[in-house]
Amino acid sequence: MIELFSLSLLYSTIRLATPLLLAALGGLFSERAGVINIALEGLMLAGAFTAAAVTHFTGSPWAGLLAGIAAGALVAGIHALATIRFRADQVVSGTAINILMLGVPPFLSGALFLSSGSTPQIPQGHLLPNAPIIIAVLLVPLTWYVLYRTPFGLRLRAVGEKPEAADAAGIGVNRMRYTAVLLSGALAGIGGAYLSIGQSSLFTRNMTSGRGFIALAALIFGKWRPVQTMLACLLFGFAEAVAIQLQGVRLPSGEEIPVQFIQIVPYVLTIVVLAGFIGHSRAPRALGIPYQKER
Amino acid sequence: MKLLRELAFPLVAVAAAFVIGSIFVLAIGDIPVQTYRLLIGSALSWPDGIGYTVFYATPLIFTGLAVAVAFRCGLLNIGAEGQLYVAAFACAWVGIKFGGTVIDSFGKPLDYSWANLPGVLLVPLCILAAIAAGAVWGAIPGFLKARFGSHEVINTIMLNFIAIALTSYFTQYFYKAPGDPILQTVPIGEQAHIARLGSFLPGLPARIPVNVAFLLALVAAALVYVFLWRTKWGYEIRATGASPTAAEYGGISTRRQIVLAMAVSGGLAGMVGVNEVLGYRGRYYEGFSDNYGFTGIAVALLGRNHPVGVVLAALLFAVLQRGSIPVDAFTEHVTKDIVQILQAIIILFVAAETLFRGPFGRFGMMKRAKV
Prior knowledge:
Chain A is mainly alpha-helical.
């Protein structure tokens, strides 16, 4: 029988939760300001590819990380422009960004490295295996503080709950939303960078494989609050770690453990929470509604 | 005149996407005209170009119709991907269980079946299974929304993951031929296969996999039109999508319409399984969908959620998909990924436009949306 609750399982949980947490905290800023962000998946891909490519060219993973942040913010800028300026449907725009980022990284990779499947391998010494984990952990109290203890956080929440009132109080609703969406891109960019230059040493096609959506689920599971969102990410990371550890393991009876059932736990839990069976998960009131100043 | 107006914006969006796409192509040092000639030209040759384009269009018509029906009810079905996986598996399951003894890839006879039904019974049964499974998988998020108010976008995303995990589980542990290295089920009964168009269309070789499912897709488009615009249910679905409060005042149970629309949507998505299992591979093959569910969103938007528009948009995306192969091979740097870039830009343009007119714009499709 294998040892289930070992130190390696704990470490693997943290490693797997980190990209989720970074992206989910990004989503938190955007959604608390009233902009749905199902583009997290695409934003992570932007960060992952850019970080790997820049690290390859400069040899500096920190430059790669910064470039990943910038790329995430830049792509989030498209989402912001489409949904805030042109009031495009936020879910549809997010879907478009996700499809765009399935295409752009391999497209550029094909041109830069003559291989659309992956970027070149980065040498071991040029990776950042731990820094993003520390950043993610520090970001939780920071996000909490910014959200609940600063004027910026108060405005952000006001814009997501009662944009009319915020506007009347002199807060630039759309300006706050732009800031929040760009911030979400930056954080998701770190999450993506961690995948390519932290967990592995190159970018591969569609390497997020749904993590952006799981981060979104964790955000909802965590009721749009920083600490709960972190716990949700750890739970989802744990489920993935257990599933990986049990892959191919046989029960004493000789049967393989079907890991698929462990893999679906986060998704089933999210549906259950969203339906209100475990506590109530309430979205920011103005989430999904473009704001238009009354004339 | 009205038709011209309806066509104008999608055409502008497509043209704009090609213009922006050419910036991408230029940026990496290729020639846009040459790239686009390869991208579009190769779909027009007879019989391979046209045959394969129509084959690629078939699943996109079904998923485009699926998303369009949900859209008309004010719902965004991002779950067509999961619905079509569940449906394809159910379709194959019926084809295996009632298909008698089959010969596996190693030439060995295999019997996973309970009965050996003749084709006249088995084919309709498989189709019904696909529709029913898709409809159930679609109705779940519909029910969750109607009963608990939880948002269908998140639930359909979650159900996509669950569908993929479950079908993978059943394939791997129960229906894979022993020793088969590929994650696929055993073949369905030979009599459950539906005819390729090449078997009765002169000039079209039977090696091209376009099959009767394409004709079913056209029938489905016609039926969706009749359903939405000529029946009471369709009227109530559109009323719910246009304005839920007004519909409630008018005595329509919007909750029931939400479940109905999602079930119909899921059933349409499920028809992809018929094309794939009965018309093409003759078995369930894990991960067969090339993002059909997500592309369906683009197809529906570009087709303005109208069946005719959906068929045209599906054909356009199929042309691009067919053309992506020669683009990959015969340009200096451009890869097949240019297709996804073009698709995404088209969606962005069409999405920004829906604000100003069309069914969701004016009435605010997602006024109450909470993700």
